[in-house]
Amino acid sequence: GQNIDQPTEMTATEGAIVQINCTYQTSGFNGLFWYQQHAGEAPTFLSYNVLDGLEEKGRFSSFLSRSKGYSYLLLKELQMKDSASYLCAVRAPYSGAGSYQLTFGKGTKLSVIP
Amino acid sequence: DSGVTQTPKHLITATGQRVTLRCSPRSGDLSVYWYQQSLDQGLQFLIQYYNGEERAKGNILERFSAQQFPDLHSELNLSSLELGDSALYFCASSLPEGGILEQFFGPGTRLTVL
Predict the structure, then answer these.
(1) B56 and A99 in contact by Cβ < 8 A?
(2) Closest CA to B35 of B113, B114, B107, B99
């Protein structure tokens, strides 16, 4: 089975740093994705980790520990436009012929306040 | 703009009715994934097609069905609609190979069942 946990809501101040955690227990693992989703809009890809360690991409970084089933998304220099939901998703092992199934957590709603 | 298109944007219908949602993937993408997003359940994977063939099934009800046509566009058919089917329905597409194979999401169809 697949179980992915994230905090439901977080609040942070403009200009600050926030860390959004994700823990997972899945029957297989072939990478972890973070997506950003503004209310009523489509999820958009932020980052990808398949090996342990930190991936940095501008103001966003993502960390993975496969042995602990743990990832986090770090957002620096927060801006008001970062107010959105952040979705953690685990990709199942490749099962042939283009099948790259994702299981999503319920998302963390981040509110950035002045 | 992800390059994935979905129609219609909004759909309002009554219980017991049948509707069809349409998705066109990005140029070059062979995989189409359908997701349902409701407030309490998060983003739930329904079904995946790859180059016209069904590849993976998630939590898709028997009242729902999908297909992918030779031009690679896909349709999700929802029948005998219930109030609980009200949700945002997203499709996503991805490349067949190369890179990290992230999924690109369309803008979604908001279905309201009255």
Answers:
(1) yes
(2) B107
Contacts of A9 in chain B (CB under 8 A): none
Question: Distance between CA A38 and CA B47 in Å, rounded?
Answer: 24
pLDDT tens by residue, B38-83: 987 789 999 999 999 999 898 899 999 999 999 999 999 999 999 9
Q: What average pLDDT does range A17-24 have in this prediction?
A: 98
The pLDDT of residue B1: 86
> Cβ of A105 under 8 Å from any chain B Cβ?
yes
Three-class DSSP category at B25: coil
For residue B26, give how far its alpha carbon lies from the nearest alpha carbon of chain A (Å). 14
Q: What is the pLDDT of residues B3-36, one digit of tens each?
A: 999 999 999 999 999 999 999 999 989 999 999 9
CB neighbours (10 Å) of residue A64? Answer: 22
Contacts of A106 in chain B (CB under 8 A): 41-42
Structure tokens at B89: 């329905």
